[in-house]
What does this fold into?
Amino acid sequence: MQYNAVVKNIKDITPEIKLFFISFKDGHKFEFKAGQFAVLALPDDANNLDGEWHRRAYSITSAPSQDEVEFYIVLVKDGRLTPRLFNLKPGDEIFMGEKPAGLMNFNGVEEDANLLFISTGTGIAPFVSMIREHKDEILNGKRQVALIHGARHTYELGFKGELEELQKKSPYFRYYPIVSRADQEVGMEWNGYRGHAQNLITNGTVEKDFGVKIKPEDFHVFLCGNPKMVDECVEIFTNKGFTRHTLKEKGNLYFDKH
Ligand SMILES: Cc1cc2nc3c(=O)[nH]c(=O)nc-3n(C[C@H](O)[C@H](O)[C@H](O)COP(=O)(O)OP(=O)(O)OC[C@H]3O[C@@H](n4cnc5c(N)ncnc54)[C@H](O)[C@@H]3O)c2cc1C
It folds into this structure.
């Protein structure tokens, strides 16, 4: 394995969440579909490139049309790759896999289907890519799109500004940030939703606010993030008649666990 890409820029969301902007060293563009993930890797020992490399999957947050590939990454303090990623500076080299992967994309989604994205933590990443790529459809009302993002703390709601801006511009897009530990934040007043992402479905908030019934005939539902949230939502939507989308069978329920 060898370095084939370079970190162009890094933006801090919090000390433990960063955006990484990466390009291939030879300048060729990364071909992927919005919603897919890529592999990033670094050597265990930066002075021994022939030794062990740590490879991990990361969802892409940029739209395929953007020049640099953007990732939204949370530090796992005792992890093998993320502490190494968090030591990188712009200009440093990295490995980025040439082949994107993942079924979390618009293949199989009808042109006028409404979309419900439910995410926690870094699970918002593929949905940001999809929303950026299909922004015009959202602005011109071709489809209605709702995005729930659950985080523990308000400062972990990466992309809040961008998504609120889109919501202001389009009546066809609704953004529901929901925070589970806002009460632990000193000096921060949070007037938004509190609890877990799936609560906004079970208590009817999204259907009431959005003014539409979330039915398998009209919606595709995408889930990404915490395994417990994903499992609970799979049960909720399976009971509503949604079926999993796979390579073999077209469905309307898509999920990935981070
Ligand atoms: C399809 C897919 C897409 C992903 N996309 C993203 C993404 O967009 N952004 C992102 O930050 N991560 C994403 N991940 C997770 C990522 O691949 C790594 O697992 C994560 O960054 C930890 O890697 P590490 O080498 O630092 O930790 P490891 O050395 O793999 O793990 C060390 C320890 O930390 C635990 N651990 C692993 N992840 C977490 C976590 N998030 N919080 C707390 N403990 C943890 C492990 O169980 C283990 O005990 C994705 C995973 C998959 C499968």
